[in-house]
Amino acid sequence: MGAKTIAVLTSGGDAPGMNAAVRAVVRSAISFGMNVYGVMRGYNGLLNGDVKEMNMRSVSDIMQHGGTALFTARSPEFNTPEGVKKAADFCREKGIEGVVVVGGDGSFRGARDLCGAGISCIGVPGTIDNDIACTDYTIGYDTALNTAMEMIDRIRDTTESHDRCSVVEVMGRRCGDIALNTGIAVGAMATLVPEVPYDFERDIVERMKAAQRTGKRHYIIVVAEGVGHTQELTERIQAATGIESRATVLGHVQRGGSPTLRDRVVASRMGYHAVELLNNGASNRVVAMKGEQIVDFDITEALNMPRIFDENLYRVSARLSI
Ligand SMILES: Nc1ncnc2c1ncn2[C@@H]1O[C@H](COP(=O)(O)OP(=O)(O)O)[C@@H](O)[C@H]1O
Ligand SMILES: O=P(O)(O)OC[C@H]1O[C@](O)(COP(=O)(O)O)[C@@H](O)[C@@H]1O
Ligand SMILES: [Mg+2]
């Protein structure tokens, strides 16, 4: 028997496209004859009773906006056995039988715990990092990639005009996917990711000198946040090569902005799939994308899957960047 009353929340770092996922959950739920609540500020809304009943119009005009209309939070209180019990008790009080959690791996751990406390949960991957092992794609990734690319193109203009080296840090706490893809798209001379250790002399200094001998006069180096020490690295490059160097940390600009078509469509498909699962009585699942197909996995199995780094793409990047 499927859930009759469900809720939707967004949790962890926001990502462009989360609004399209919320809209899809609300509209699908209503079309299946369910009642649906929007939970404010991630798991905090379940702890503080901050929920609102949604109707068809509650999610009008939000899809084109970045951020999340439900707001988001990282909730330390929920991340305790007492917090999970309190949230589950609140759901029971409200008659909420199922919760769709749009967020990253941390949020899925929370969803798994809430399932353990008796509430059916479905995870929908929403994070710009693309760092969730079970899915080829996370909502927000495409928008973040395009924003980072556009920003680095701008940095290139000034880098070129000054014959400089620019070291640009992009987001990705433990995952080099944003760095690797934007590095290829902007023609970076080197791309550093947390998955592959690098050697300063071999991978940076010697490459720059070799490129210089072919006539190159300006350089873009893309570094994933997870590699760290971007300012220090920039100073070392200037000291070792004599080439004037500047560091730019792109930061949260990558998390904002109107979502791309891909993010809106994938988010809509995933949100619909999540509600279909709850309507069929499923629980403890994560929605994922494999190739172009929307599929789902058991949350615990999904959280235990190892992330596979795209070695082939890394090789392409290394060959082209000089
Ligand atoms: N191991 C865990 N058990 C229960 N809840 C968790 C756990 N890890 C994270 N959460 C909850 O999910 C929220 C979001 O997780 P976080 O890792 O910050 O972001 P993301 O979901 O984007 O990876 C946390 O603030 C916390 O409330
Ligand atoms: O919003 P905050 O707390 O500054 O977090 C920054 C982190 O959030 C992210 O943008 C997304 O990470 P999550 O998906 O785990 O929330 C990371 O790339 C970055 O390291
Ligand atoms: Mg995370």
Automatic annotation (TrEMBL):
<keyword id="KW-0808">Transferase</keyword>
<feature type="binding site">
    <location>
        <position position="164"/>
    </location>
    <ligand>
        <name>substrate</name>
    </ligand>
</feature>
<protein>
    <recommendedName>
        <fullName>ATP-dependent 6-phosphofructokinase</fullName>
        <ecNumber>2.7.1.11</ecNumber>
    </recommendedName>
</protein>
<dbReference type="InterPro" id="IPR000023">
    <property type="entry name" value="Phosphofructokinase_dom"/>
</dbReference>
<comment type="pathway">
    <text>Carbohydrate degradation; glycolysis; D-glyceraldehyde 3-phosphate and glycerone phosphate from D-glucose: step 3/4.</text>
</comment>
<keyword id="KW-0418">Kinase</keyword>
<dbReference type="GO" id="GO:0005945">
    <property type="term" value="C:6-phosphofructokinase complex"/>
</dbReference>
<dbReference type="InterPro" id="IPR012003">
    <property type="entry name" value="ATP_PFK_prok-type"/>
</dbReference>
<feature type="binding site" description="in other chain">
    <location>
        <begin position="127"/>
        <end position="129"/>
    </location>
    <ligand>
        <name>substrate</name>
    </ligand>
</feature>
<dbReference type="InterPro" id="IPR012828">
    <property type="entry name" value="PFKA_ATP_prok"/>
</dbReference>
<dbReference type="GO" id="GO:0030388">
    <property type="term" value="P:fructose 1,6-bisphosphate metabolic process"/>
</dbReference>
<dbReference type="InterPro" id="IPR015912">
    <property type="entry name" value="Phosphofructokinase_CS"/>
</dbReference>
<dbReference type="GO" id="GO:0048029">
    <property type="term" value="F:monosaccharide binding"/>
</dbReference>
<dbReference type="GO" id="GO:0070095">
    <property type="term" value="F:fructose-6-phosphate binding"/>
</dbReference>
<feature type="binding site" description="in other chain">
    <location>
        <position position="213"/>
    </location>
    <ligand>
        <name>ADP</name>
    </ligand>
</feature>
<feature type="binding site">
    <location>
        <position position="246"/>
    </location>
    <ligand>
        <name>substrate</name>
    </ligand>
</feature>
<dbReference type="InterPro" id="IPR022953">
    <property type="entry name" value="ATP_PFK"/>
</dbReference>
<dbReference type="GO" id="GO:0003872">
    <property type="term" value="F:6-phosphofructokinase activity"/>
</dbReference>
<dbReference type="GO" id="GO:0016208">
    <property type="term" value="F:AMP binding"/>
</dbReference>
<comment type="subunit">
    <text>Homotetramer.</text>
</comment>
<keyword id="KW-0547">Nucleotide-binding</keyword>
<feature type="binding site">
    <location>
        <begin position="104"/>
        <end position="107"/>
    </location>
    <ligand>
        <name>ATP</name>
    </ligand>
</feature>
<feature type="binding site" description="in other chain">
    <location>
        <position position="225"/>
    </location>
    <ligand>
        <name>substrate</name>
    </ligand>
</feature>
<dbReference type="InterPro" id="IPR035966">
    <property type="entry name" value="PKF_sf"/>
</dbReference>
<feature type="binding site">
    <location>
        <begin position="23"/>
        <end position="27"/>
    </location>
    <ligand>
        <name>ADP</name>
    </ligand>
</feature>
<dbReference type="GO" id="GO:0061621">
    <property type="term" value="P:canonical glycolysis"/>
</dbReference>
<feature type="binding site">
    <location>
        <position position="105"/>
    </location>
    <ligand>
        <name>Mg(2+)</name>
    </ligand>
</feature>
<keyword id="KW-0460">Magnesium</keyword>
<comment type="function">
    <text>Catalyzes the phosphorylation of D-fructose 6-phosphate to fructose 1,6-bisphosphate by ATP, the first committing step of glycolysis.</text>
</comment>
<feature type="binding site" description="in other chain">
    <location>
        <position position="156"/>
    </location>
    <ligand>
        <name>ADP</name>
    </ligand>
</feature>
<feature type="domain" description="Phosphofructokinase">
    <location>
        <begin position="6"/>
        <end position="278"/>
    </location>
</feature>
<keyword id="KW-0067">ATP-binding</keyword>
<dbReference type="GO" id="GO:0046872">
    <property type="term" value="F:metal ion binding"/>
</dbReference>
<keyword id="KW-0021">Allosteric enzyme</keyword>
<feature type="active site" description="Proton acceptor">
    <location>
        <position position="129"/>
    </location>
</feature>
<feature type="binding site">
    <location>
        <begin position="74"/>
        <end position="75"/>
    </location>
    <ligand>
        <name>ATP</name>
    </ligand>
</feature>
<feature type="binding site" description="in other chain">
    <location>
        <begin position="216"/>
        <end position="218"/>
    </location>
    <ligand>
        <name>ADP</name>
    </ligand>
</feature>
<comment type="similarity">
    <text>Belongs to the phosphofructokinase type A (PFKA) family. ATP-dependent PFK group I subfamily. Prokaryotic clade 'B1' sub-subfamily.</text>
</comment>
<feature type="binding site" description="in other chain">
    <location>
        <begin position="171"/>
        <end position="173"/>
    </location>
    <ligand>
        <name>substrate</name>
    </ligand>
</feature>
<dbReference type="GO" id="GO:0042802">
    <property type="term" value="F:identical protein binding"/>
</dbReference>
<dbReference type="GO" id="GO:0005524">
    <property type="term" value="F:ATP binding"/>
</dbReference>
<keyword id="KW-0479">Metal-binding</keyword>
